[in-house]
Amino acid sequence: MKIGRLQAFSDGVFSILLTLLVLDFKLPAYRDGHLAQAVLNQWPILVAYGLSFFYVGTLWLFHHDYFAKIKETNWQLNVLNLVILFTVTLINYPTSLLAESIAQQQRNDMQFAFSYYALVALLISAMFWVLYRFMAQHHELTGYDQNHERFYQRTKNDPLKSVTIYLVALVGIQINPWLGAVLIIAGNVFHFIAYLRLSQGIEQYGLIKKG
Amino acid sequence: MKIGRLQAFSDGVFSILLTLLVLDFKLPAYRDGHLAQAVLNQWPILVAYGLSFFYVGTLWLFHHDYFAKIKETNWQLNVLNLVILFTVTLINYPTSLLAESIAQQQRNDMQFAFSYYALVALLISAMFWVLYRFMAQHHELTGYDQNHERFYQRTKNDPLKSVTIYLVALVGIQINPWLGAVLIIAGNVFHFIAYLRLSQGIEQYGLIKKG
Amino acid sequence: MKIGRLQAFSDGVFSILLTLLVLDFKLPAYRDGHLAQAVLNQWPILVAYGLSFFYVGTLWLFHHDYFAKIKETNWQLNVLNLVILFTVTLINYPTSLLAESIAQQQRNDMQFAFSYYALVALLISAMFWVLYRFMAQHHELTGYDQNHERFYQRTKNDPLKSVTIYLVALVGIQINPWLGAVLIIAGNVFHFIAYLRLSQGIEQYGLIKKG
Amino acid sequence: MKIGRLQAFSDGVFSILLTLLVLDFKLPAYRDGHLAQAVLNQWPILVAYGLSFFYVGTLWLFHHDYFAKIKETNWQLNVLNLVILFTVTLINYPTSLLAESIAQQQRNDMQFAFSYYALVALLISAMFWVLYRFMAQHHELTGYDQNHERFYQRTKNDPLKSVTIYLVALVGIQINPWLGAVLIIAGNVFHFIAYLRLSQGIEQYGLIKKG
Fold first, then answer.
1. Does the keyword Phosphoprotein apply (chains A, B, C, D) (predicted)?
2. B189 part of a folded domain
C-alpha cells in the first residue's frame, strides 16, 4: 500500500494537536481594568505552549523527513505509527499541568508535572527507537541499499540518546524541578539537532531519489 | 468521481476525533502540593482514552485498507461513508461517560455508560456491514474480479460477528459491568484481528494492484 | 493555480466543524446512580447534533461534487470559497442554542434559536447562489462547453429555492417554532435532493471527464 | 524534498485554527425567555470572530499562493514555516480578549486586548518578512529567474509595510482604543490587497508554470 494516506492522517493528528494546545489560553478571572495584569500572570501558559509547540513541531518535521524516504506501508507500520501518534497526543495534558504548576509555584506539584512531561517524552523517544529498528528490518518498504545502511548506522542511536536524556531529566527533577526543566529543554534541542542530522543525511545519501 | 477527497475528508474526521479525545483530560480540583494524587485519581480517563484511541485508530486502519482497493466513488458511497463517520463520532461522548462512571464507581452509572459505549460500537459495526454489502453489489467501483469475490466471501461476516459481540456485551453489562467491559475490549481486539485479516487478504489476492 | 489545495483546506474546515459539534455533548450534573436519566434528558443535543451533522455533511458532499468539475482556481474563487466556509462555520453556535432551547422548552427562546439557525442556513444558500453565478461567468476555470451550459440551466435556481425555503421557515417560526423546525428539516432534505441532482447531472453530462 | 506535505500540514493548522475560533461562542447566562437578548449582547464575539476569520483566512490565501510557486523544501524552510504557523496560532487568544474587553467596555482592558492583537499581527508580518528574505536567497527551491526577481522587487517591502501599520496601531491604541481598532482593520485590508497583488503578480510573471 502507498504511504500517502498514512502521511496525511499523521499530518492531521500533528496539526490538530499543535492547534488544540492554544485552547490552554483561557480567559482568567480579573477585576475590571486589570485584564493586562491577569493575562501577564498567565506567562507560564505561553512558556508551556511555546515548549510543546516546538516539541510537537519538531516531531512533525522529523516524521515528515523520516517518512519521505519510505515508499510503502504495511499493517505493522500502520499500527506502529498509530502507537507513536498515541504517545505524542499524550503530551497535551502534561503541557497544561506544567503551566498550572509553574503558575502556582508549588514545588511538589512542579516536580510531578515535569516528571509527567519527561515520562511522555521518554515514551515518544522509545517508540521512535522501535520505529528505527522496525525500518532497519523491513527493507522492502524503502528500497534499501548501501546508502540506507550507512545512514542507519549513523543515526540508529539517536532515539536511545533521547531516552537517556529524559531518564536523566526524571532523576534531575526529583533533585530540583528547574534542573529537570533545563534537561527537558535539552531533550527538545537534541531532537531538533537530530532532525537536522536526519534531514542532511537523507539529502547527502540521496535516500529520497534512490529510495 | 475519484475516491481521493472522500479519503482525505475521512482522514480529517478520524484524526480530529482521535485528537479531540485528549480534551477529556482536564485539570482536576486539587490542594496545593497534592496535584500528583489528584491526577493519578484520573486514571479512568487514561483508560477510556487509551481504549477509544485504539478503537478509533483501528477503525481508521480498517477504513484506510478497505478504501485502498476502491477506485471510484458515487453519491451512495459518499452518503454511506458520511453515515459511518457520524456513528464513529458518537463514540466521543460515551468515552467521557465511561471515564466519569468508573471514577465514581457507581454500579448503575457504569452500566449505563458501558451500555451506551457498546451500543455505539454496535451501530458502527452494523454500518460497516452495510458498507460490505454495498461494495459487494457495486463492482464498478472496484474493478471486481474473482479475487475480490473470494476475498468478500472470506470476510463478509466479520461485521456481523462484531455486532454479535456487542450484543452479548450489552446483555453482559446488565449482569456485571466489568463483564461487559471485558466484552467491549474483546470487540476491539476482534476489530484489530479483522483488520489484520483484511490487510493480509488485500495483499494475498492482489486487490490493490488489480483493483 | 490548481484547485487541489483549496479542496484540501475546505475538507479540513468541513471535517473539523463536523467533529467539533461533538463537543456539545457535555457531562450533565447528575445524582449518583442517575446518570442514565441525566444523559437521556440531553436528547435535544443528539437531535441538534444529528441535524447539523447531516446538514454540514450534505454541504460537504455538495462542495465535493461541485468542485470536482472545476480545474483551476483564482483569487476571486479563493475568496468566495472562504466566505462560504465562514458562513458554514457559523452554524456551530445556533446548533448549541437549538439544543439548549429545546431542552428548556421556552417558546421565545426556541423561536430565537430556530430563527438564528434558519438565518445562517439562508446565508449559506445565498453564498452558494453567488458561487453558481460566479462559475457561470468564469468558464476558463472549468473548460466550459454546451454540457456545462445545459447543466447550469437545469440547476441554477437550486440555491434560490433553498433561500426561499429558509425565508418561509423564518416566517413560520414566528407563528410556531415547530412549524419552523419542520421547514428547516425540509430545507436540509432539499439540499440533499439538490446534491443528488448535482451528482447525477455531473455524471450524465460527463462534466468531470470533459471539464 | 517535495513541498506537498508542508502545504498539507499548513493547511491543517490554518483550517483547524479558523474552526477553533467558533468555540468562542459560548452559551451565555440568561433568564428564561430572554435568550435572544443575551445572545445579541454577544455581538463583540461575532465581530472578533469575523475579524480573525478573515485575517487568518487571508493569511491562508497568501500562504496558498506564495507556496504555489515553490517546488522544493529544505529544513530551513520547514522550520521557518513552523515558526510562522506558531505566530499565527497565537492570534486565537487575543481574539477572545478582544471580544471580552469590547463586551465589558473598560478602556484599559480594551487597550490591552487591542495591543496584544496588534503585537501578534506585527509578529506574523515580521515572520513573513523573514520568509520573503529567505526565499530571495534560496533560488534553488523555486527555479528562480528574471521574472522571480522582478516580482520580488515589486513585493519585497509588503511585509515591512504591514509591520509599520501595526506599529502605528500599537501607538494609536494608547491614544484611543478605537483608533487602534481602525488601524488593525486597515492592516487586515492591506494584507488582503497584498494578497491580490501577490496573486496577480504570480499570474502575470508566470511564476507557477515556469517555477
1. no
2. yes
